[in-house]
From TrEMBL:
Keyword Hydrolase attached: yes
Xref: InterPro entries: Calcineurin-like_PHP (IPR004843), DNA_Repair-Maintenance_Comp (IPR050535), Metallo-depent_PP-like (IPR029052), Mre11_N (IPR041796), Pesterase_YhaO (IPR014576)
Organism: Psychromarinibacter sediminicola
Organism phylogeny: Bacteria, Pseudomonadati, Pseudomonadota, Alphaproteobacteria, Rhodobacterales
Segments forming domain Calcineurin-like phosphoesterase: 5-198
Protein's UniProt name: DNA repair exonuclease
Alphabetic keyword roster: Exonuclease, Hydrolase, Nuclease
SUPFAM superfamilies assigned to the protein according to its UniProt record, in alphabetical order: Metallo-dependent phosphatases
Entry keyword Zinc: no
Gene Ontology MF terms in the entry: exonuclease activity
Length: 413
């Protein structure tokens, strides 16, 4: 039997609002904003080049209530490319698709089969592979959708498509809950899941695969992203990862212990960023870089953080691959500070003030006023709710106190 290849993806969240507000470069901002489109284009390019028979999209192709005619036009262009090559597309709607006005506003090309909330099964033309799927009817699915799947077709390869949180995942609300053993017991050969943004192969007999999202959106969705390629040969399935992300977000730490002067610190930064560039899988990596360790220049570095941020950004851009989202400091100066000196006393006083309810309330009110001047999407990204606003106000106050102490200590180093 000739091998049949299928590409499994989920959670594209096309044109999801940009969350990395620290990106100041307009060109890089545009690259990140269109990264989800780039990921889909890459998957279509791969499908065309590698003779893939079908693309499986296991939910959340769209992103919530975001409405964009350009998104619809872009998607139709990519689906038409697959249609012209005779490549089928199987799509189930996830929780974000249900609330998106674009998802049902245009007619899909004839190669696209969209499963409805009742569930169903379609045979992939020219093969003995049957694709089963169930879409969300509503945004919330508190009960398992597994009972809506018919049993496997005897003598065939059966693939099930389901958007589910399984038995729970950190950072994800429960949707269409079920367990891996329940899926395995259903009799299908492969479960093409979606919803959880981190890739995980939960089982391989049969396969239960959460492919993760093909493009991360911020540091919380760090690392290179991928889709999953299935190869079906004589009824047996093998899988492999296919890189898809145009941009990857990554945390990076550099221990500067021993870099006792500005020149050695700059050299350490350059070498570290060159190593990070060599390890990058996607076209671009956006780093949240942390300087750690013990340095006699700790307070000077903190005092001159904006200068070192600019230096790090310059070294990163010189690699042609990296960008710096933020430079963070986790540094200590050699020896313990004298708790009786004037700066230490000031630090203690500022810490006490920050803990006072009146100060915190006033800080939150002022921050809320400043945020009100920003566009709505920026406000949501910085402080989505009252808890996030309070946490941001506390963080900014702590940073301000450190900056004051750093300026005072750094003046003597």
């Amino acid at each position: 039997m000739t091998a049949v290849r299928l590409l499994h993806t989920a959670d594209l969240h096309l044109d999801s609002p940009l969350k990395s507000l620290a990106l100041r470069d307009s060109g890089l901002r545009a690259e990140v904003e269109t990264a989800s489109r780039s990921a889909l284009t890459r998957m279509v390019d791969f499908a065309l080049a590698e003779d893939v028979a079908a693309l499986l999209i296991a939910g959340d192709l769209f992103d919530g209530a975001e409405r964009s005619a350009k998104t619809a036009a872009f998607l139709l262009t990519q689906l038409d490319r697959l249609n012209e090559a005779g490549i089928s597309v199987f799509y189930i709607r996830g929780n974000h698709d249900v609330e998106n006005p674009v998802s049902g506003a245009f007619e899909m090309p004839t190669n696209v089969h969209v499963f409805d909330g009742r569930g169903g099964s379609v045979q992939l033309e020219g093969t003995d592979i049957h694709i089963h799927g169930v879409s969300f009817r509503d945004r919330h699915a508190p009960e398992s959708l597994l009972p809506k799947f018919a049993g496997p077709v005897p003598g065939a390869v059966n693939i099930g498509m389901l958007h589910t949180s399984l038995s729970g995942a950190a950072g994800h609300d429960p949707y269409a809950p079920c367990t891996v053993p329940e899926l395995q017991a259903h009799g299908f050969d492969y479960w093409a899941l979606g919803h959880v943004h981190k890739r995980s192969v939960h089982a391989d007999a049969p396969f239960v695969v959460m492919p993760g999202m093909p493009q991360g959106r911020d540091i919380g969705e760090a690392g290179p992203k991928s889709a999953t390629l299935l190869t079906v040969t004589d009824g047996a399935i093998s899988i492999e990862e296919v890189p898809t992300s145009a941009v990857e977000f990554r945390r990076s730490a550099l221990d500067i212990t021993g870099a006792d002067d500005a020149e050695s610190l700059r050299a350490a930064l350059r070498d570290h960023l060159r190593t990070e560039a060599a390890a990058t899988v996607s076209d671009t990596a956006i780093l949240r870089l942390s300087l750690t360790g013990e340095s006699p220049r700790a307070w000077q570095i903190r005092r001159d953080l904006d200068v070192w941020q600019e230096a790090a950004e310059g070294f990163a851009e010189a690699t042609g691959t990296l960008r710096i989202e933020r430079l963070e400091l986790d540094l200590t100066a050699p020896g313990a500070a004298d708790a009786s000196d004037a700066v230490s006393e000031l630090e203690s006083l500022m810490a006490e003030i920050r803990r006072e309810p009146g100060f915190r309330a006033e800080a939150q009110a002022e921050l809320d006023r400043i945020l009100s001047l920003l566009p709505a999407d920026r406000r949501r990204a910085l402080a989505a709710d009252a808890d996030a606003l309070a946490a941001l106000a506390d963080d900014l106050a702590a940073r301000g106190a450190l900056a004051v102490a750093a300026r005072m200590r750094g003046a003597h180093n």
